Structure formats: structure tokens, C-alpha cells
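hey so i finally got around to running the thing on that chain from the lab meeting. sorry it took forever, my laptop kept dying and i had to restart like 3 times. anyway pasting the input first so we r on the same page abt which one it is
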Amino acid sequence: MLEWLQGMHPGFGITMLASVVFVAAAHSAGNCIIKFFGDRVKLEPYSKAVVAFALGINALALVALALGMAKGLHGYMAWSIGLIFAVPYLCLSCRGILSNACRFIRKNLHFSIILFVFGCYTLGSALCYPSGWDEMTYHIALPYRWIAANNVEVFADNPYSGFPSLPQLVYTLGILSGGVLFPRLLVWYCFMVFFFAVYLLFARHGRKRLAAAFSFVFIFSPIFFNVVREAYAEVFVLLNFASCLMVTLRNPSRNLCHGNVAICGVLAGAMAAVKLNGLAPAALSLLVVLSRRQSPTAKRIGLATLVFSVGFLIFAVVFYLRPFIDTGNPTFPMLARVFTPSNQAYVAVSDFHSAMVTARYGGSGVFSFFSLPVMLAFADDLFDGISAGWILPVMIAVCLAGLRHSMARPVKFKDICIPICITGYYIFWFFTAQQTRFLVPMLLLLCLCAIRVLTRVPTVFVRTALMFIFSGCLLSFPQLRTSHYFFSWKHIIVRRHDPLKFIAGATKDQAYVKALEKLYSLANDDSKALLLFERRGLYVPIRYELGTPFFQSKYFTPLPDSHDELYAALVANGIKYVLVGHENNNPDLLSMYEEKNMILAGMLICLAREGKLPVIWSSDGYAIASVPDSQQVSQ
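ok and heres what got predicted. didnt touch it at all, straight out
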């Protein structure tokens, strides 16, 4: 098993080289895209670097999608594409990159130290094998299944493959050259670029120390210590959103040209191409673009909206076509009652995932609407296990305190655009998926609004506000979950050649690792496993599919009428082994579906008693059963 896991990792040297080539290729492709939109697109050098990287990542996702559709997911293709873009960029720009970086560090020393400390501490996690639930279920597991199948199809047993999947496509291209560590390294780098963009946005009024102070409380909030540790998809939404704000708020031109607006449209399309939640920051980006129009007549607003929408649709629609072609539903697995109402399995899966979004997190009602911003500061169990820290309610208080000052003079749309965006985003978040990490775009806007307030008030108010902000930051420090990063660095230094121990320690699930080892000992060329009440398939050493009912549509959705029907489905799909997991380990467990799962569990027990599904291994809530064919059962 250890040898099999090490085969997923080509070595740190190859991984780091692949990461450098990929990042350089993204910057190069992004610069080409900016030039395509014309010479009138004016961006400051640092802003241009951020926007080019975001555009380049989006372009490489399109390349990965095209390769998948053309059955060209091969390592030599990934290296060729990366080198074609990266080599000219590195040869022509390497000296300029180093000189600009040194100049920035010298002029922005406070922020550079903050970013260096955070980056070094969190880098250890990026150099370890992925161990998060979502990573092992689909963020990194799906790219491996696409590579094995040599296409980017929607797998009926894994509904997450129906997402527009921009991040997973990027990971696919990188894994082909850099192996299993590539996604986390890329996410880590994207966060560093995002924090760099955040500081530039904070410093746009010229107060570097104030911007550094806000950057400190922003970066060292509990959210990022939880999010940076895994290859979450949200960083791609954040990177594109920050890039759109760079194009609009830090643009040296007083009025945005059509090229700038089109770039913002493409960036917004990339947000939607990550997942449906990206539609909210994409809509806010349009509002920010419109607020930058000088003399906003109806004609100019309409033309800007048209240009933005064209850029948005050209990019986003491509990613939604893939699930539409495979399932008839561009938003699969969601909204099945709208697009595929006749397919009972799709509707059942859609209802399950809708319940996962609305039934597990946050609250409802008028009281919750106004109290959740405070609850987010400390009640992480109420959400997705992540708290926002006290920075959120403190920033809200600072912004509300500044309203009185701003209302003393005539108000223009560009002055109230950010507050409108904050309010609109919170309403969207409240009525959809109330997960803390989805609130980062609103937190960024809150900080921008608070800085704008502090640049327009007397120094006494600024000092008082900073005192409250840093007090909130200190109160949030006990909520920082830093042990994972310490554990990661310890593993790298002491046990870098033993990924099994790291996975067991990081997941805190030794029995799951033992189950993987047992499957490895049973594996042969035609083996195929079905995972029930367990979704983490990344390290399953044989071909596998997910079979938990209602989570996916291929198996047992709706439930079979009898245990014989269940057995027939296993035999018909070539299942050799069934891995039954411990359901309590599932972070998305829904009480309303427990009774249905128990019915399926009862059928499994009946099959085991009849000898049709004999248990060959069990430990701490996990069990592996073999599936003999009908002839063996009769004998």
C-alpha cells in the first residue's frame, strides 16, 4: 500500500518544477489575454500581475476541459502546454519579476513580513498528502478518475462531477505533471496571490500602515487557518473576485474602457464556473463595474452591461455545457425538478443535496438574519466547523459607525455601491448555503468599506476603531486551528516517507487506513469496489464507485425493493468488494435520511446471512464484504 501511495507522488523535485512551470504558464497566458483586449486596458504593474494570473488560471482550465473532451489527458500534453507558455515568460520576465518583488518588499515591509510568516507556517500542509474529506471525495479524487477514464465525464455515482468544475479541471492538468501534491501547492500559491491583491486594495488610498494592519487581522482570522489547509475551490472565486476589484477600484483611468469591462466579465464567468455560489460575487462585480462609469447614462450603463454579460457568458457557459450534455441539467446535481423532473433518481439526489445546503448550517427567521453575523464570531458548530472570528462583527460596527459621517454630504452611487454589495451578498448567503468560508467575499468588502470610513474621519476615531479591531483579532486567536500545520511540518521533517501515517493522523481515522490496506491486499486487475456510507475514494487502491443512496443516482436511488435486487445490482455492475464505512464519520450526515440508510444496512445484513455478501474483514465500524457471483453462491 505504501508503494502504491508513493506512486502518486513523483518526488518533490518534479512536483516543484511542475508547479513553477504551471504558475509561469498561467502568468504568461494571462498577459496574452490582457493584450488581446487592446492597448486601452490600463492596469498598474502589480494589479496587472494579479489579474494576469487569474486570467491565466481560467485559460488553463479551459485547456484542461478541451483535453478531456478530446481524450487527451496525458502527462506529456500537460508538460508541453506548460512549457510552451512558461519558457518564453521566464526567459523574458524573470529579471523583471525579481526586481519588482524586491522593490515591493522594500516599500511594503510590514505586509511582506505578515505574508512571509503566514506563508511559511501554512506551506507545510501544502507539501503533505491531501487528507480533507472534500479533497478525498472529489476535489482531488475526481481528477484522478478523469485521468484514468481519459475524459471529463459526469460520473453518475459522484454528483460532484456535475459541478462546472473549474478548480478540478485545473487540478487535473497539474496532477498529470506534478502528482498528488500539486493541487494543495497551487491553492497555497493562489492564497498568497489573493492576500497580495487584498493588501493592494486596502492600500489604494495610500495609507500603507493602515492597509498592513487590516491585512494582518484579515489574514490571521480563523477562516483562513481552516481554509488554506485543504484544496478548497473557494480560493478560485476569491482570486477572480479580487482581480475584478483590482480592475475597477485600482484602475488608473477615471473611466473603464470596454476592454476592462470585458475582462471583468470573463473573471465573473470564472467565478460562476467554480460552482453555483460564484454567481453572487459575479453579480456584485457587475455592480462595481457600473459604479465606475463616468456620467452614467442609460445608454452607457446598458452598453457596459452588455459587454460584461458577453464576457461572462462566453466563459461560463462552456463549463455548464459539460453536465448539460451528460445529464440534461447544466446545474447537476441541483435544480433537477426544473431541468429533469421525469428522472426520479436525479430528483431524489437533488433533494438530498438541497437538504445538505439548507438543513445543516446556520439558522432561519428574522432573529437569525440579524444575529448570525455575531454568531459567526464564535459558534463554529452552527456552521461548517469554521468561525469567522470577531473581525466580522467589529468591521460591521465600524462600517455602521461611518454611515453618519457619509450621510452628511451628497451621496453618489459609487459611494454606496460597496455597502449595497455587502447587503446583497449577505442576503444571498443567508437564503442559500450558510457556510462560513462562503462569506469571505463579504468580509473583503467590509474591510474595504471600513478602510474607506477610516480615511475620512479624524485620527481619534481611527485609533479607537483600530483598538477595537485588534481586540477582536486577539479574541479570535484562541479559535485558530494551527495544530494541523505543526503536525504537517513535523511529518515532513521526521516522517516524510510514510504517507500512510500522515493520512491516518490527519484524518484521525486509523480504521479507514486499515480498510485501504486490506483492499490493497485483495486487489487484482479486475477488482472493483463499491463504497457505502463512505465517500473518500482518493486513496482506494482499486477501481471504485460510490454507492450511498440518495447522495448519488447510479446505485440504490430510490432504494431497492428487496435484498435480492440489491445483490443483482452489485453483480450487474461488476462489484467485487463492498466497503461499508462508519456513517458517523460523514460530515454531511442528515438525520432525515438515517432511516433510509438503515433499511439499506438491513438488506446488507440479510445478504451476509445468506452467504451472498460474506464479510471478510471488519474493524472499528468499517467492514469489507466480497460479492461472489450467482454460481459461487449456489455452490
